[in-house]
Amino acid sequence: MSPTQFSLSLPAPSSVADLFVALADPSFPSTHGLAVYAALPGGEFRLLGAVTPSRPSAVLRTGWPADPAAAAAASVTVGVSVETLANLQNLGGAFAPPENRLRIALNVAKDLFNFMASFGKPEGGQMTVPVRCFEMWVGRFEDKYRKDPDFMLKIQD
């Protein structure tokens, strides 16, 4: 670890659905923020989210309660890194500013359309799908969300 990074071991990750992170130091540089990562034993660090002076607190969803690997793990390593705002923006979807909300909503709509289209090709401006199609999609969406709360932020156009 460097002077701008630190980590801690958090026991029983499967019991931790959310992490609360806040910038409590008023002298924190306005050009920087904190990136929060987590890694299960033997795994890669995954970005959970970030806080900045303009967004000084966040509740970060972990996805661990629905993750079989987290249920088997005795602990998880949480890492925090001081990053420039430019670096945080480059991290992509996991640090989605409010102006990206339209893109996220469109990703949700596109995911639903693609799921429905998997049941048959749209023809003549119409699509025939099973009656339970939407319910099936919601179940699939919820499963994906439990595994990775940021999955909709990562879909590329």
TrEMBL record:
Taking every annotated instance into account, which residue ranges of this chain make up the domain Hikeshi-like N-terminal? Answer: 2-88
> InterPro entries, from UniProt?
Hikeshi-like_C, Hikeshi-like_N, OPI10
Q: Which residues form the Hikeshi-like C-terminal domain?
A: 103-152
**Coiled coil residues, start to end:** none
Q: TM spans, by residue?
A: none
Q: Which family does it belong to?
A: Belongs to the OPI10 family.
* Name of the protein this chain belongs to: Hikeshi-like domain-containing protein
Q: Which organism is it from?
A: Tetraparma gracilis
Organism lineage string: Eukaryota, Sar, Stramenopiles, Ochrophyta, Bolidophyceae
